[in-house]
Every structure is written in structure tokens, then in C-alpha cells.
Amino acid sequence: MDFYDTLVWSRILGLAIFFGLFAVFVFWSYRPGGRRYYDDAAQVPFRDESKHAGAEN
User: Fold this and answer.
1) Is the pLDDT of residue 55 over 60?
2) What is the C-alpha to C-alpha distance for residues 32 and 27, in angstroms, rounded to an integer?
3) Residue 1: which pLDDT band, with cuts at 50, 70 and 90?
């Protein structure tokens, strides 16, 4: 194996690793139990709105 062959295989290996990480992240985001967590996180900016409403005046 010369340098060019090593370079080609390292690119293929790197692509496979990053594609695998991407697949894991997508699966983790769409897992069955994740919806409750993401719905809760989406409501964070709207919590305790009445408590901080007087601070702006």
C-alpha cells in the first residue's frame, strides 16, 4: 500500500464514521421518548412570563 491508497481508505473511513454519528444523532432526536423532552424545552421561553412582566417597566 502506498500513500495514495492510505489516503483513500482514510477518507472512506472518515466518511463512514461521520455518517454513523449523523445516523445516531438523527435516531436520538426522533426516539420515542424524546418528544416529551423536546416539547418541554420548546416552552422554556414562555414560562413565568407574568413574573418578569413587571421588571421591564
Assistant:
1) no
2) 10
3) low
Q: Is the pLDDT of residue 4 over 80?
A: no
| Among 38, 23, 9, 56, residue whose Cα is nearest residue 1 | 9
AA letter at 39? D
Residue with cell 444523532: 25
DSSP-assigned letters across all residues of the chain: --HHHHHHHHHHHHHHHHHHHHHHHHHHHT-TTHHHHHHHHHTGGGTTHHHHHGGG-
Question: What's the CA gap between 38 and 30, in Å, rounded?
Answer: 10
Alpha carbon 39 to its chain centroid, in Å, reads 15
Q: By the 8 A CB rule, do 34 and 28 touch?
A: yes
